[in-house]
Amino acid sequence: MIALSRRGFLAASAATAASLILPARARAQSARMSLTATTRTLDVRGKAATVWGLLDGNGRSGLVLDPGQAFAVDLANTLAEATIIHWHGQIPPNVQDGVPDMPMATLQPGESRAYDFAARPGTHWMHAHIPEHEMLLLAAPLVVRRPEDVAADRQDVTMFLHDFSFKSPAEVLAEITGGASMAGMDHSQMGQDGMAGMDMGAMGQGDMMAMPGMDGMAMDLNDYNFDAYLANDRTLDDPEVLQVDKGSKVLVRVINAAAATVFWIDTGALTGRLVAVDGEPVQPLPGSRFGIAMGQRLDIEIDVPAEGGAFPVLALREGARERTGLVLATPGATVTKVADMSDADHPAFSADLTQEAALRAFTPLPERAASSQPMLMLGGSMMPYVWTINGQTWGKHSPVSAKTGERVEIMFHNMSMMAHPMHLHGHAFQVVGVGQDRIAGAVRDTVHVPPMGMVTVAVDAGEVARWMLHCHHMPHLSTGMMTEFAVSA
Ligand SMILES: [Cu+2]
Hints:
By secondary structure, the protein is mainly β. It contains eight helices and 31 strands. Among the domains are: 6-150, Sandwich (Immunoglobulin-like); 375-488, Sandwich (Immunoglobulin-like), CATH 2.60.40.420. The protein has helices spanning 2-19, 24-27, 131-135, 147-151, 169-177, 205-210, 354-358, 474-478, and strands at 33-44, 47-56, 63-65, 71-77, 85-88, 112-117, 122-128, 139-144, 155-164, 228-231, 241-243, 249-256, 263-266, 272-277, 280-287, 289-292, 297-303, 310-317, 323-329, 375-381, 386-389, 400-403, 407-414, 420-424, 429-434, 437-438, 443-444, 446-449, 454-460, 465-471, 482-488. This is Multicopper oxidase domain-containing protein.
């Protein structure tokens, strides 16, 4: 974390210098912010849906912080249930990390809690660390701007993706897991009905060897068909249209908050540049299609042509035809409707590590020898629907241990037929190995490990504490696909 801390320090210094010449109104932004966990109503294809959400003091979803601004937030729970919010991508003191009873108890209905820590710049998000609550959209963007973002002549756009069902999360989990979910235990009477939602549930490992493996035919891509796929809470029936200037530059901050959906971000006619992943800059990677797994973020820079026009930025559900998205439009441009289905299934992003292997950190971790190189075997199956780390589920897990300050290289070895987006709390790690290849890959906090794939990440152990390390596929997490990174003194 040395490089990150130094960068954070430099950013803070620049902001402090800037604050000396800012008007009082701007300086007042360092005041505490309020955030409320509450219910809200969405219109999903003409049907009202009551979901949960995290609203700021002005009723907007999520938070945007200025450079150097502290994460000084008062979180109020106005829901009828106890919950707790995790600041995904932030590196707060462990006590503020937001995992139930790890170490803080959930917030009871009506309870408020104060948070205060140095914010880590970049595109991040926040969500309940209870799968059923996350699936109810108790999640929102958390964008911390860098001094460069403020200086850049560039418009900031956020694209927050989610998958949505009119059914309750408990019902959805019960259908997916056949009752194996800890949350779905009370709904185990769903039994075999749960199999209806599975696309290719019963395929075994033998099929993998017989298939080409690139089109997701051997692996299990989507184990549930949601009712809608949302970008900024909307479908393509009525997408968000953002006005942009002709010839301008736009930064699209994509956040995949979906419970169980991997997307391709398609910039259509325009070529984009991937400039950051999980809030950390990478060497710019040009392209018009970038994959994003659950929990991950992509910052994509797009040049709007001088002649203007309307430019959809779409999120394509992998291995299926559904899509969602938003539209960038210059003044006066005609915005035509985009169908919410493509003509054919989108390919699998989860099939391989092509994109991950192409990413290079803008600021790599310093070269160091690792004190230990633990391997984590990712396993599990559709029948029964249980997903494991080293054959174990949460509560029966063996922690990954390190001393604070030590460099550890964790190798994720996926021996299952589904991909797993693996997220570590309280740290940013660097991808240093894909398959057998050593790379100076992206610095990030969530890495997608394809079926039968291997990814190695390097991390410098941070605060002495128990930090969660888990799969960000909510149904997988709900069956216990979590362990801990136990950092000792
Ligand atoms: Cu998983």
